[in-house]
């Protein structure tokens, strides 16, 4: 610590010396040669003085040399002691580089140069010196790395440097980091109690992991046992043996470890002791053949205790007396009670806010999952509602849409452009397949639900096998562009991936488009007419077969678009559609068939409930699916037509 403190002081002095050093034209090589012996063979005890001297020069090339020295990338030429870098350390001979210009100055075989290899202690001291330079670096990432290093290995000498940086820093990300690192240093090293308390209060409302870690360190406790409570201890909790916080067994173990009570002897230990004291077929004068009951073994063991050949077994009354005669408590490692009180109050407020943010984060996850289910289910809701067809191949249309995106991306290297092309192309491909499927199979099976279900299930298997034959069974990469690869982070608690946001926006766009189509176009009018009463619609000149064909194609096309969106974050495999078909049906059933508002509500309920179940039981994701199916079964007992019931088709049927 003293060495690092001296380095901090000399760095401040160097700010005034730097112009002079540059004016004199002193090279870094000349400065290093003045301390060549100490640099070549440093020790933890002497390296601090060497660094003091180097930093005091304020040479602008020094930080790069210190970094390379710390990383064991610096060398010394044996012939003249010149410090150099090498171009390729694995080559032989190596190309030697000038430490100032980086230009080649010759070559040398491995035995002609010596690598500078400081040990771990020396490297830590060098790292402390580098922090001073890194905090003033122009690159924000370098300054941020310096603050991370300070937080990982805090030192009192860093306190004035961090305070000075806080006064001039403009980058908001680094400012947020400074506002946590500085209180941590003040709390750890300030001598005045009120100053530490004020630093703790500055963290109020800060939900970052660093802020919580700083406060948790202050509130760390150790468990003690004593005859009476010590006057100088900062007591956190007084424990009662037999409570949920401290069992009687654990409390007595503490007494034994503190040598305040004799140890308990288990039955197994008792048998081992008896076996070790068998003499001429007897233990304590009792024949071994008679030790076939616990009472006999207790008698033999008591004889060994009287002969001082075994430790006595504490009776229950003795255990109770020992526990009653001592006090068990948790004490803070921090000695100041006002400091721990302030830390506890601040942390409690932060945890309350963290709970609110976690609920918000869980809600975002639920909305994100709901948008995925909405995209996957909206096509199914349309075909199921208008045509009454249970399409078990709906998941395969999602899969085909994902593979369409993959194929487009293999042809177009620009990921953004490939997605822009894949979305409409996937709609057209799956729309055409849907129309083909409706014309060739579905149209002959209307009003025959069992046959329709079996036929579409067979088609789903056939489509999976076709895709396996074309693309194989391995997952295919469908890479999102860079602007979708990250996440929007509000704080250390709340974040959501950019892909999920994009899918939510895509779902909203499709919701608006479908609402406009169904409510503001002639096609939508005819779809609603066929949905409510197909016989009456036919009598009014509407062709129900044409509407059914277009509706099935529209639902299939939307599934293809959903496949492109889902493929950006899920594995593109031949059976990926089966992962969404169950959720799609649950969404449609809960929301109400044939109604986009019902599908939206159903997706929100299914997505939110699934995320809530996963949060309650995070170690078993399969349980969420099971509970969701049970929920749907119970739900349809009370609302068999879903949240928004469709009117008309039941009357028409």
Using brief descriptors, characterize the structure shown:
single chain; about 650 residues; alpha+beta; five-stranded antiparallel sheet; three-stranded antiparallel sheet; about 65% helix; about 5% strand; extended; disordered N terminus; disordered C terminus
Question: Could you walk me through the main structural features you see in this protein, from its secondary elements to its overall organization?
Answer:
By secondary structure, this protein is of the alpha+beta class. Among the domains are: 140-218; 221-332, no CATH class; 370-578, no CATH class. The protein contains 28 helices and 12 strands. It has helices spanning 2-23, 28-33, 36-40, 47-57, 62-70, 120-135, 140-152, 158-168, 172-189, 193-201, 209-218, 248-257, 267-276, 294-306, 316-324, 337-387, 394-411, 415-440, 449-471, 482-485, 498-520, 522-532, 534-539, 544-567, 578-591, 596-616, 621-638, 649-652, and strands at 75-77, 83-86, 94-98, 104-108, 113-115, 221-226, 235-239, 282-283, 286-287, 327-332, 487-489, 495-497. A 5-stranded antiparallel beta sheet has the order 4-3-2-1-5. The N and C termini lie far apart (86 Å).
């Amino acid at each position: 610590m003293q060495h690092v403190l001296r380095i901090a002081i000399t760095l401040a002095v160097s700010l005034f010396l730097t112009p002079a050093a540059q004016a004199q034209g002193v090279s870094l090589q000349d400065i290093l040669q003045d301390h060549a012996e100490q640099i070549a063979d440093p020790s933890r005890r002497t390296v601090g003085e060497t660094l003091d001297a180097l930093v005091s020069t304020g040479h602008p090339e020094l930080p790069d040399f210190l970094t390379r020295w710390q990383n064991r990338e610096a060398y010394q030429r044996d012939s003249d002691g010149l410090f150099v870098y090498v171009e390729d350390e694995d080559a032989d001979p190596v190309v030697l580089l000038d430490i100032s210009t980086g230009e080649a100055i010759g070559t040398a075989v491995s035995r002609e140069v010596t690598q500078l290899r400081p040990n771990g202690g020396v490297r830590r001291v060098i790292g402390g010196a580098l922090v001073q330079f890194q905090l003033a670096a122009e690159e924000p990432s370098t300054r941020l790395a310096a603050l991370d290093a300070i937080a990982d290995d805090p030192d009192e000498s860093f306190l004035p440097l961090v305070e000075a940086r806080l006064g001039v820093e403009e980058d908001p990300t680094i400012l947020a980091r400074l506002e946590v690192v500085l209180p941590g240093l003040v709390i750890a090293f300030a001598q005045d109690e009120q100053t530490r308390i004020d630093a703790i209060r500055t963290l109020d409302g800060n939900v970052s992991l660093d802020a919580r870690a700083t406060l948790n360190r202050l509130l760390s406790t150790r468990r003690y046992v004593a005859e009476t409570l010590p006057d100088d201890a900062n007591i956190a909790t007084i424990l009662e043996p037999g409570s949920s916080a401290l069992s009687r067994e654990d409390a007595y173990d503490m007494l034994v470890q503190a040598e305040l009570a004799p140890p308990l002897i288990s039955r197994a230990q008792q048998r081992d002791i008896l076996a070790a004291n068998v003499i001429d077929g007897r233990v304590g004068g009792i024949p071994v053949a008679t030790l076939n009951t616990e009472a006999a073994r207790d008698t033999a063991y008591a004889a060994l205790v009287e002969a001082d050949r075994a430790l006595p077994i504490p009776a229950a009354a003795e255990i109770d007396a020992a526990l009653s005669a001592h006090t068990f408590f948790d004490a803070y490692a921090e000695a100041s009670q006002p400091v721990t009180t302030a830390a506890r109050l601040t942390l409690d407020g932060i945890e309350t806010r963290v709970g609110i943010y976690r609920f918000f984060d869980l809600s975002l996850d639920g909305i994100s999952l709901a948008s995925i289910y909405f995209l996957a289910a909206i096509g199914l809701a349309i075909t199921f509602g208008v045509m009454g067809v249970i399409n078990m191949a709906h998941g395969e249309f999602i899969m085909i849409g994902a593979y369409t995106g993959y194929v487009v991306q293999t042809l177009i290297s620009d990921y953004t452009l490939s997605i822009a092309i894949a979305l409409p192309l996937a709609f057209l491909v799956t729309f055409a397949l849907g129309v083909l499927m409706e014309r060739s199979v579905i149209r002959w099976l209307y009003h025959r639900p069992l046959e329709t279900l079996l036929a579409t299930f067979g088609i789903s298997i056939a489509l999976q096998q076709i895709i396996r034959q074309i693309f194989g069974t391995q997952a295919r990469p469908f890479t999102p562009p860079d602007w979708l690869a990250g996440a929007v982070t509000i704080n250390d608690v709340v974040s959501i991936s950019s892909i999920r946001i994009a899918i939510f926006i895509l779902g909203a766009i499709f919701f608006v488009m479908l609402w406009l189509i169904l409510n503001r176009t002639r096609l939508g009018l005819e779809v609603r007419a066929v949905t409510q009463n197909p016989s009456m619609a036919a009598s009014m000149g509407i062709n129900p077969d044409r509407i059914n064909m277009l509706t099935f194609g529209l639902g299939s096309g939307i599934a293809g678009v959903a496949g492109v969106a889902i493929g950006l974050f899920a594995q593109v495999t031949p059976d990926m559609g089966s992962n969404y078909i169950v959720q799609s049906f649950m969404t449609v059933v809960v929301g109400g068939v044939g109604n986009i508002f019902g599908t939206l509500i159903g997706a929100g309920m299914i997505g939110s409930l699934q995320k809530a179940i996963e949060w309650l039981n995070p170690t078993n994701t399969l349980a969420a699916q099971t509970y969701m199916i049970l929920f749907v079964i119970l739900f349809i007992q009370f609302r068999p037509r879903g949240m928004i019931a469709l009117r008309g088709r039941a009357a028409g049927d």
